[in-house]
């Protein structure tokens, strides 16, 4: 899903993006504009455009048919997309493959976090949910390791890299056959005995009456909501979750992480490092990504979500600002950046990636998956997923042009966003650590200094409606 390594391979560029290949090898070409090409950006961003549309369909599929079948559909889309990319003969086939991968992302991101949040005990929910993000980071690392070795396999190395996505797709498909559907989804769809059986199985005890009654109560409330999407927008008590769930996705993408993760090899080549060195640098940053995500797994349910988010804001802001200043000083339009300065940037990228990977990266998915009540859970998570994909699409589609026009200033652009993110985490985001997923409204939102006003106002409006005389 992250094609940065492939987009730096000459064989790939020469076949599909010959203009970029020519610009890349011009001695006097502007360092910041070598990869500025709308078709190259479309290759990357098309995945996320497809994910936006497919996540809408997946939100209904997930509710009507369950989390497990939705994951299976995702794996099939991934498999088809990987095969199309591996055998692509023209740009049309290449983008068709990316669109299939995007559909897989839409279905997978809609179902997997919900699946984990619904089966996990409250005290372990954060760590288990972040395992989803951990496996993504491991996948990115493996992909860049493969890119490092296939970059020297001419002229078909890029086919191996892109086709490698078929491996995880097969694993996901086989794994989805073995898992059980969530008790909430089973009971919601009328399969009560099966739901109780699965609930006892995943909790390891026979007495699950308390949790079963909580699920039943949530389902009864959900049945009263005929239009979850309209309910999210028009009902005041849904606004806090909708706002926080979607704004987290905007902030996650506007940290500037995609500047690093999409185009890490491109950035290092821009700074004058060779092709192999740039791919190796990407492997280093991806290794940091995996290690930091592991830290998140073991800390999120102990120190809480907000603490991780606020600490990371400080860390990422410093790294982003110093990175921008270093590039502004040492990387001009046509020079080769001094190697010691390039190493400083690499270290700063690692600092930035580690902060993101134990905070805004995994928590951007965890928090929206646990804050919505059952009646709006699939619809609410659709808004979160689609907002994430929309912002990722915008960044992927515009980043290379932004880099060309803003140069090192692009880092300060994202640093400004990080400041806003910190204020949001401090003042507007409540802590959800250890709260049962079906008790969020009572224990979190109705007690928050700002969001409780939405519930109070809605209660007042309902009382006014009931007190109006019949005409």
TrEMBL record:
Protein name, as recorded: Uncharacterized protein
Superkingdom assignment: Eukaryota
Species this protein is from: Manihot esculenta
């Amino acid at each position: 899903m992250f094609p940065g390594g492939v987009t730096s391979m000459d064989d790939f560029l020469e076949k599909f993006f010959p203009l970029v290949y020519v610009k890349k090898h011009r001695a006097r070409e502007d360092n910041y504009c070598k990869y500025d090409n709308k078709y190259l950006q479309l290759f990357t961003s098309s995945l996320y455009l497809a994910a936006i549309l497919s996540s809408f369909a997946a939100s209904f599929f997930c509710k009507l048919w369950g989390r497990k079948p939705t994951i299976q559909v995702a794996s099939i889309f991934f498999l088809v997309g990987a095969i199309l990319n591996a055998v692509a003969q023209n740009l049309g086939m290449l983008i068709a493959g990316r669109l299939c991968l995007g559909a897989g992302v839409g279905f997978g991101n809609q179902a997997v976090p919900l699946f984990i949040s619904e089966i996990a005990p409250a005290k372990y929910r954060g760590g288990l949910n972040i395992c989803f993000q951990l496996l993504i980071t491991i996948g990115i690392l493996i992909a860049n390791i493969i890119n490092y070795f296939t970059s020297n396999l001419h002229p078909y190395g890029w086919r191996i890299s892109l086709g490698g996505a078929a491996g995880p797709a097969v694993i996901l498909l086989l794994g989805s056959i073995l898992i059980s559907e969530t008790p909430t989804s089973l009971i919601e769809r009328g399969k009560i005995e099966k739901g109780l059986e699965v609930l006892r199985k995943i909790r390891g005890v026979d007495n699950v009456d308390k949790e079963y009654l909580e699920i039943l109560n949530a389902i009864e409330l959900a049945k009263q909501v005929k239009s979850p999407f309209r309910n999210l927008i028009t009902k005041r008590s849904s606004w806090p979750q909708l706002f926080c769930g979607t704004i987290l996705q905007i902030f996650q993408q506007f940290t500037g992480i995609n500047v690093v993760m999409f185009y890490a090899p491109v950035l290092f080549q821009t700074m004058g490092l060779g092709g192999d060195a740039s791919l190796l640098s990407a492997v280093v940053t991806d290794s940091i990504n995996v290690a930091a995500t592991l830290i998140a797994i073991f800390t999120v349910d102990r120190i809480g979500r907000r603490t991780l988010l606020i600490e990371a804001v400080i860390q990422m802001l410093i790294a982003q600002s110093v990175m921008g200043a270093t590039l502004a000083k040492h990387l001009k339009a046509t020079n080769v950046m001094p190697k010691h300065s390039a190493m400083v940037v690499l270290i700063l990228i690692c600092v930035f990636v580690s902060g993101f990977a134990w905070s805004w990266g995994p928590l951007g998915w965890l928090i929206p998956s646990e804050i919505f009540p059952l009646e709006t859970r699939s619809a609410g998570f659709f808004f979160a997923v689609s907002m994430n994909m929309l912002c990722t699409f915008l960044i992927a589609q515009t980043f290379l042009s932004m880099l060309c026009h803003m140069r090192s200033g692009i880092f300060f652009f994202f640093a400004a966003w990080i400041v806003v993110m910190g204020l949001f985490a401090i003042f507007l985001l409540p802590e959800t650590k250890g709260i049962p997923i079906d008790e969020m409204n009572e224990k979190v939102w109705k007690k928050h200094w700002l969001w409780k006003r939405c519930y109070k106002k809605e209660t007042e409006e309902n009382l006014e409606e009931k007190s109006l005389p019949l005409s």
